[in-house]
Amino acid sequence: MVFRKTRLQAVASEAPTLADEAGLDAAYSAYGAELYRFALRGLGDKGAAEDVVQETFLRAWRAADRFDENIASLRVWLFAIARNTMISHVRASQARPSAATVAETPEEGTGRASAGEDFTERLLRSWVIEEALQRVSEEHRTAIVETHLKDRPYSEVAAEYGVPVGTLRSRVFYGLKALRAAIDEMGVTL
What we know:
The protein is mainly α. It is 69% helix and 0% strand. It is built from eight helices and no strands. The chain is elongated, with a radius of gyration of 19 Å.
C-alpha cells in the first residue's frame, strides 16, 4: 500500500505529460483502477467499464495538449473525460437496445427527477452525488441522507440520533455546503 501511495504522490508532483508512453503509463497506474470502479459502479457491467477506461485514456492521450494543471488536477480531468465517455456509452446503448448493457429505465414517478429529465442525466447526477457524499464527514453525510434523500422530518431524525433538532439542522446546513464544495472540486456542474 505504501508503494501505491508513493506512486500516486509521484504522479501528482511530476504532473506527467500524457503525450508520451511513460506519462500515460504513470497516469494509468495511478488512476486506472479508480476510474474502473467509477465506471463499473455506474454501468454495472465489467466489460463496459473496461471499455470506458480504455476510451478515457485514449481520449486523454489524444487531447493531452489541452490538459492544463492550473485549471484542474490530472485526476479531476480524467474523471471528467470518464464521465463524458460513460454518457456516450449509455446513449449509444440506448440507441441500440438489443446491445444495451445498462439497467432498464426506471418507471415513471420514481425519484425526484422531473418528468422531462433524461434517464442518463438522472443516472449521472446520482453518481456525482454519491461520490461527493463520500467526501463529507460521516455526521454530515448521515444528516443529509436522512433528511433530504430519505425525506424524513428533522425531529424524527434528531430523536433517533439523540441530538437536538438545532444541531441536526446545523449538520445539514454545513453538510450541504461541504457537499457543494466537493462537487465543485470534482469539476462537475449540476
